[in-house]
Write a structure and sequence with these properties.
The protein has 3 helices and no strands. It is mainly α and about 100 residues long.
Length: about 100
């Protein structure tokens, strides 16, 4: 995009009119995916918690529930780390924080 500004300085406003809606759409998609990942992880943790409590004396079911909780927490951590890493590398996402 910088090259377009240098080559066609008069068309800088045209380029920004084209790019701005695209960035807005990408930010909206990013926000939806970010929030959905958190919601799905919370749902998995809740269901696995009920499974863990209801597993009474079944060590296999208890282990499955524990593993599901651990995997959901790792997934949430990866989403947060990936977002922060992109913001660190690029300086910002160009989006408002979700």
């Amino acid at each position: 995009m910088v090259i377009l500004y240098l080559v066609f300085p008069a068309s800088a406003s045209i380029v920004s009119q084209i790019v701005s809606p695209m960035v807005s759409t990408i930010c909206q998609i990013y926000s939806v995916i970010y929030n959905a990942a958190g919601g799905i992880a919370a749902l998995i943790i809740t269901i696995a918690g009920f499974k863990w409590v209801g597993s009474a004396e079944d060590p296999g079911a208890r282990k499955q529930a524990k593993d599901a909780i651990i995997h959901a927490l790792i997934g949430m951590l990866l989403v947060v780390i990936a977002t922060d890493l992109v913001q660190l590398i690029t300086g910002s996402t160009g989006c408002t924080a979700p």
